[in-house]
# Entry
Amino acid sequence: GYEVVDVDPTGLCCGAAGAYALSHPQTSHELGELKASQVAKVGLSLVASANPGCEMQLRSHVDSGVRIAHPVELYWEALRAGAYSDLS
# Structure
């Protein structure tokens, strides 16, 4: 299983915000770096994000040792591993 932890209780945006990263690249980069430092401070090995823009932003700023994954990926992996075999 996974343990859910709060990286940032204030909900600071990672800086992707749809087209924001394209229209404000410098600020977007700074926000991405800030979010990456929050992830590093917590010491995570996995970050789940349901937003593709956030996934891309995090992948470009978070240390390569931290996996960035969509929750559906994690669910699929659990299904393949038999975690839900008793539901049938």
Notes: Strands lie at 46-48, 67-69. Residues 20-87 form one domain. Helices lie at 20-23, 25-42, 52-61, 71-80.
